[in-house]
Amino acid sequence: MQSIIRTGRGALEECFGPIVLTFALTAEPDRIVWTLAGARFLFLPLPTAWFAGCGAFETIVDGRYWFDARAHIAGIGLLVHYKGWLVEHGG
Fold first, then answer.
1. Is 20's pLDDT higher than 60?
2. Separation CA 41–CA 43 (nearest Å)
3. How many C-beta atoms surround the C-beta of residue 57 within 10 A?
4. What CA–CA distance (Å, rounded) separates 48 from 87?
5. Are 31 and 53 in contact (CB under 8 A)?
6. Among the listed residues 48, 52, 57, the one whose alpha carbon sits nearest the alpha carbon of residue 26
7. 3-state SS string over 37-53?
8. Residue 44: inside a domain
9. Percent over 90 (pLDDT), the chain
10. Could you tell me the pTM of the whole model?
11. Which residue among 15, 44, 63, 88 is buried most deeply as judged by most CB within 10 Å?
């Protein structure tokens, strides 16, 4: 699965082909929470309730960027749940 994350409409947008999910970011003392704020297919808005199980958080664990993301769609169920950390790519 491949996605593109970009800024847009005052929030972050994650694009999966023609589906775009818009997330509001909230800073908590120990993490940043991604909360679904909208969804669309191409330019057509989709009911946010369909994607209510989509979200993520990120934090620092042992000095590394840690994330936990999930995508759950109403009527279909859990599509993907992944978590892990990013490492610097050495060249």
1. yes
2. 6
3. 19
4. 33
5. no
6. 57
7. EEEEECCEEECHHHHCC
8. yes
9. 52
10. 0.79
11. 15
d(CA 34, CA 2): 18
* Distance separating alpha carbons of residues 67 and 39, to the nearest angstrom: 21
**Assigned token pair, 58:** 């990120």
- Residue 68: predicted pLDDT: 94
CA distance 19 to 38: 11
> In this structure, is residue 79 part of a structural domain?
yes
Report the domain count for the chain. 1
How many angstroms separate the CA atoms of 89 and 25, rounded? 26
- In-domain check, residue 65: yes
Residue 36 lies inside a defined structural domain of this protein: yes
* pLDDT single digits (tens) 63-84: 889 999 998 889 999 988 999 9
C-alpha span between 37 and 51 (Å, rounded): 10
* Distinct helix (H) and strand (E) counts, the chain: 0, 8
Least confident range from 22-26, 33-37, 54-58, 87-91: namely: 87-91
